[in-house]
């Protein structure tokens, strides 16, 4: 053992230049590896926080995964039906609150109901087609970053007026509205609602900021002429990478189309 240490010490002391070059090379290599690992980890975290966490990870819509089976198909395996027009089904998710409560028993995620609607917004002689999203301000902050994107007002400002709306800043500039402006919303069903602008938001997505407005659930339900309707349940998983598997299981359990 002493002989080995003596040989090592001799090489280190008599070849000091080579020793320093070797140590420096190893240090540079290890440091470069640590730097690249930190860069990749930081890029992944930034991607998740900027893009994935900006919106809900899973959207459960009222679209059925498969057509509603006919009673004869359920009773008789040999039954075959041709030319049958399906009955008109009431839009929306059936028993949305019960569905949310059932999912919360096993989904490690935050859930909130919402209503998706399309409307024509009129202001100062201009007409624009926008997406109107009905939300619950108390639970919206748990599934999206909308609360941090608000530039004027806040999510709770939607309670300030009977029909309040939060507009994207691009949409507000395009049509020329300001806080406390009165706009008219006309839905595809012909329902007209006068709304008060209570704030603006900036999400960083141009298409969203220029075409989207957020209202309370009851305002969106009024536009759809369906009181109590909820046509989407949005989910934010604790682990974004597990959203696909959770989405598939939610779709199998509820029978509705679930998109991750």
Protein described:
The chain is 40% helix and 27% strand. β2 (109-123) and β3 form a beta hairpin. Strands 2-3-8-5-7-6 form a six-stranded mixed β-barrel. The chain folds into two domains: 2-52; 59-75 and 90-259, no CATH class. The radius of gyration is 28 Å and the shape is flat. The chain has helices at 2-14, 16-52, 71-75, 96-103, 137-140, 146-149, 169-175, 206-211, 217-224, 243-254, and strands at residues 58-64, 109-123, 126-135, 150-152, 164-168, 182-187, 192-201, 212-216, 232-237, 256-259. The model has no long low-confidence stretch (mean pLDDT 82). The relative contact order is 0.18. It is an alpha+beta fold and 260 residues long.
Number of strands: 10
Can you write the helix and strand succession as a string? HHEHHEEHHEEHEEHEHEHE
Number of helices: 10
Shape: flat
Task: Set out the fold topology.
Elements: H1 2-14, H2 16-52, E1 58-64, H3 71-75, H4 96-103, E2 109-123, E3 126-135, H5 137-140, H6 146-149, E4 150-152, E5 164-168, H7 169-175, E6 182-187, E7 192-201, H8 206-211, E8 212-216, H9 217-224, E9 232-237, H10 243-254, E10 256-259
Parallel strand pairs: 3-8, 5-7
Antiparallel strand pairs: 1-9, 1-10, 2-3, 2-6, 2-9, 4-7, 5-8, 6-7
Summarize the structure.
With 260 residues, this protein is α+β, with helices and mostly antiparallel strands. The protein contains ten helices and ten strands. A six-stranded mixed beta barrel has the order 2-3-8-5-7-6.
